[in-house]
Amino acid sequence: MALRSSILKVIAYFDLFSYPLAIQDICWFLDVEARQENVQEEVEALVRENRLFRVGPFFSLQDDPALAVRRLRGEVRADELLSIANRGARILYQFPYVRGVCISGSLSKRCADEKADIDYFIITRANRLWIARTLMHLFKKLTYLRGRQHRYCMNYFVDEEAMEIKEKNIFTAVELITLMPVCGNGGLVKFFQANNWTSEYLPHYHDRPKEAEGTPSSSLLKRVLEKLLDHRLGDRLENYLRGLTDRRWSRKTERGDINMKGDTMTLQCDQHYSRPDPEIFQQKILNKYHRRVKEVMEKTNGYFFSS
Q1: What burial letters (b/e) apply to 24-40, b meaning 16+ CB within 10 Å?
Q2: Architecture (CATH level 2) of domain 2-64+285-298
């Protein structure tokens, strides 16, 4: 019964994104111990009972074969973008004070449609996040000239003083364990160690690499700029850029500006992190997830779910 409940919770979560799962996917995201053959047996039983549906090589709560086609196409597109994303990450790593770069978002889950952005998670040196972030976003503005702005979406920054992610829930756990490290082993290893709490939600996800392969050496320009800004001038510039960005984004939020995807534009500007407001998107997903799980459990012989 515990295994069946865990399987349904996993599929219910990814069903929010219309993303069907293979047996191996389900095993990775379970919150109970189970052998793959037992998972296979239970999933097949749920299919026979019409509580799950087989869509191509995957399983879903929706009886829609188009979901399998969409996922398979997304994997092909993701493979095309990953080589571009890896090159982009190496470029971003050469900006001053950058200590780690990961591919994040849907691409890190090997899923991308024709309009997919390339998202990055950035780790910076302590107390230099805003210098690094500003320089990278100035670079992104130049990419608009060639229509490549979608290749450099830097949505989430933390520095070495704020490695632990405070919001601990299924959404952040999934996002963290599926990050794809590209550059900066020192910062990345420390980051994953600081967020071992994810194993409380997803104890069986063994596929997460904690180190990047082939991190490039820091360029001469990066080393020189870091040395020049490593004193009071850098401290003043860091505080100025944080305040400037905070005021700018506060005005956007107050006006109710939305981005190209129709989401409210928000940003939390702290000394040690820059991130979208979790109350805007993250909480919306969690609310949908809890409602979806409740619906599924009520239809499945009264299995219970506890948050």
Answers
A1: ebbbbbbbeebeeeebe
A2: Orthogonal Bundle (1.10)
Range with lowest mean pLDDT among 64-68, 178-182, 188-192, 249-253: 249-253
Closest CA to 175 of 186, 160, 187, 165: 165
- The pTM score is 0.89
Q: How many CB atoms lie within 10 A of CB 184?
A: 25
* Cα–Cα distance list, 217 to 5, 93, 220, 254 (Å): 47, 9, 9, 42
Q: Which residues of 192-219 are buried (b: 16+ CB within 10 A; e: fewer)?
A: beebeebeebbeebeeeeeebeebeeee
C-alpha 20/C-alpha 35 separation (Å) is 20
Phi, psi dihedral angles at 128 (to 5 degrees): -140, 20
Packed helices 129-143 and 232-255: angle between N→C axes, nearest 10 degrees: 60
Question: What's the length of the chain?
Answer: 307
**pLDDT tens digit sequence for 99-136:** 999 999 999 999 998 888 999 999 999 999 999 999 99
Whether 2-64+285-298 shares its CATH topology with 72-221 is answered no
Quickly name the fold that domain 72-221 has.
Answer: Beta Polymerase; domain 2 (3.30.460)
Q: CB 227: neighbour CB atoms within 10 A?
A: 11
> Which tens digits make up the pLDDT trace of 12-50?
999 999 999 999 999 999 998 899 999 999 999 999 999
